[in-house]
Amino acid sequence: MPSWGNTELTRNQQSALFEPSPCDACKQRDRCAVEELACSDYLRWQDTGKARYRDREPTSKIFQKIFKVNQ
After folding, report:
1. What is the pLDDT of residues 14-71, one digit of tens each?
2. What does the DSSP assignment read for 3-57?
3. In sequence order, which residues have a C-beta less than 8 Å from that of residue 57 and are 6 or more positions away?
4. What's the CA gap between 64 and 61, in Å, rounded?
């Protein structure tokens, strides 16, 4: 299974990361990838397909909520 940082990704998570997303033009994108972070805007987009493009303060807590892997 592919991974992102130290996290194994499901098929849906892979699509979310590698298809067009709100992250594409975000200055935090590289930091989020390296430090395993995500923002509220990304969570909203993941859940609804819509982003507001304003809640861009990434945290590891949001990342874990989105990308947690059942072990």
Report:
1. 666 677 888 888 899 889 888 989 999 988 888 888 888 787 899 999 999 887 754 3
2. EETTEE--HHHHHHHHSS-GGGG-TTHHHHHHHT-B-HHHHHHHHHS---S----
3. 39, 40
4. 5
The residue range of the domain holding 35 is 3-67
Q: What is the DSSP letter of 22?
A: G
Domain count across the chain:
1
Q: Return the closest-CA partner of residue 40 out of 17, 19, 15, 23.
A: 23
Six-digit token pair at 26? Answer: 């975000």
